[in-house]
Write a sequence for this structure.
């Protein structure tokens, strides 16, 4: 079964076509890559899949259920989470609080609860804190639990976004350039974390990435976009050799 099926997505902005009948699939339990030159339509595809933009044509299915145009907060509750190239955290909240805020709605958030169920709410908050600490320990960020999120490096913030996805109960995560602006040492940790979350937690990943070595390492299946269309699908080795891909990249990245 596929976690995501994208069929004939089209999206126009005025006279510009960002997506032109783009179709691809993401197998459940996979780490799948989405590559292509700048302006190929990758970020637009993410925005449409995650419900931030409505397509002008085509369909998106999540585990076989059509979700085209479903608002992002509804998709989030169904297990589809999107990260961003520049992480969007709550900068003044602690790292721990950022993870706790990503958890599904708690009974204590309902209006009457603070007056009538204080003990239960306190127990639930302690359990949530323990769960968030356990996630931070997996990410090797427990030592930063009480630090404001704004103090983290860019790579650490990307790890926090992965932790927030884990806290939310995500089944599918759209990763937007996890390697961008990250030093090579921390990138190895991020890559290992993605693999561990995929292998141990069964989370499906679709990632946009310009670091083709990282894509080759993580992704058995890769789709290449150019001018809003999928021009090739296969392993990274097959993508590198595909004539249409070589033309799209002007013979640069694919031959590196």
């Amino acid at each position: 079964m596929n976690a995501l099926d994208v069929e004939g997505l089209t999206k126009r902005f005025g006279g510009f076509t960002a997506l032109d009948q783009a179709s691809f699939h993401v197998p459940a339990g996979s780490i799948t890559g989405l590559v292509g030159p700048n302006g190929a339509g990758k970020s637009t595809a993410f925005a449409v899949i995650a419900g931030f933009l409505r397509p002008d044509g085509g369909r998106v299915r999540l585990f076989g259920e059509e979700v085209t145009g479903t608002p992002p907060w509804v998709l989030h509750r169904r297990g589809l989470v999107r990260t961003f190239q520049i992480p969007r955290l709550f900068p003044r909240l602690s790292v721990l609080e950022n993870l706790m805020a990503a958890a599904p709605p708690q009974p204590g958030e309902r209006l009457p609860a603070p007056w009538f169920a204080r003990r239960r709410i306190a127990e639930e908050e302690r359990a949530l804190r323990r769960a968030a600490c356990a996630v931070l320990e997996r990410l090797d960020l427990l030592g930063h639990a009480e630090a404001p999120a704004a103090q983290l490096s860019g790579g650490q913030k990307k790890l926090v976004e992965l932790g927030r996805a884990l806290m939310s109960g995500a089944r599918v995560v759209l990763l937007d350039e996890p390697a961008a602006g990250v030093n090579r040492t921390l990138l190895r940790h991020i890559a290992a974390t993605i693999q561990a979350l995929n292998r141990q937690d069964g989370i499906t990943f679709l990632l946009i990435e310009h670091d083709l070595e990282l894509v080759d390492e993580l992704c058995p299946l890769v789709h290449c976009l150019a001018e809003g269309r999928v021009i090739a699908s296969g392993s990274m080795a097959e993508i590198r050799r595909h004539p249409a891909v070589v033309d799209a990249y002007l013979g640069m990245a694919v031959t590196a």
In short: The mean pLDDT is 90. The radius of gyration is 19 Å.
